[in-house]
Write a structure and sequence with these properties.
By secondary structure, this protein is an alpha+beta fold. Helix content is 26%, strand content 31%. The strands form four sheets. Strands 2, 3, 6, 8, 9, 10, 11, 12 and 14 form a nine-stranded antiparallel beta sheet that branches.
Length: 393
Amino acid sequence: MKRMFKMVNKIQDYEWGTQDYIAELIALEKKDDKPWAELWMSSHEKAPSYLPELDMTLDKAIARNPQYFLGKETAEEYNMKLPYLFKVLSSSKALSIQAHPNLDQAKTGYKKENEHGIALGDYKRNYKDDNHKPELICALTDFHAMCGFRPSWETINYFSELDLPSIFENFYQFKKLGDSVSWAKLFNEILRVSGDKKQAILERVRKNLSSLTDQYTSSWLAKLLDFYPNDIGAISPLFLNTFMLKPGQAIFLEAGLLHAYLQGSGIEIMANSDNVLRGGLTPKNIDVDELTSILKWDMKKADIQNYPSEQELINYEIPISEFSLRKLNLHGIYKLVNGKPTMLLLVSGNLVAKTASEILRVEKGESIFLTGQAKDVELSGQALVFIASTGTN
């Protein structure tokens, strides 16, 4: 039986997507003007990849023979399922501010909502499954994002420059203490503001934008206020680290880390879950109590992973076993010692993948799935390749 398969992947056309990036990457002509937001390489039931040589989707192939497709160890550890979801993400405007639960929180929340009879499709449902959803985003283009609470002194200075302190009851206590407890109180106040007070805050930020010394933060405040004029989440650059990743740079998002992707295209890999708790920039449900119960309140600079662009192989730092990600600048031959369910995506160039009995030619924008039986794979050619798999690299 074959050990390497080309994949045909599904596209998600969310309204925040872009018109051209994914289409150009996979050389597929768009037949309408819907934005293309995500390309899923997955066995997820929502959008499983198709394996033409087997005439079936990846989830069904794995279900038919999990130990062959996943490898015995992965199949047993992850209940006969592929534990990660691999994506290309391309956004023209901000996604929602959000955080994801850890494993214990997901199990507890999922069980509780089931016991309360909240349907999976209910607007107010928070937990769609009982799994955690750590993830990593790696930039393919200049990629703008927010991630984690700023150091306290930055938030205090920004609020002061915009003349906001007098509006918030909990600001002066936070200014005095600068700790996570006082910040949690102020953050809760921000999220719960409504009515005339909310409009007064948004208007004051608009009025005083020119007073902000940080021009990058000021520019994103202006954009978010334009995109989401009545959403208090539009002021989140004041308290969330707001930055741009250059191509190849990445950031790992652990459970409880508040974040939002703002604009750009990147490679995203995550645990196979759909648990999202939102805090703003969205018409979807915002459950402040549940969100704040799972958040990490650390206030520090974002931990950006940065590597030399010319480095042949980059192993991104991922402290969990569900997934790993490598970036390979292939110039010649690379020996991939495998034995795990692995996906390869070519962002540029072309290559030939060989095992002892198979040869597969892969072009830009194409992706392949290597079963757990493909233990020694030789890659040759000139290409930029992203390699997703399970376990540590």
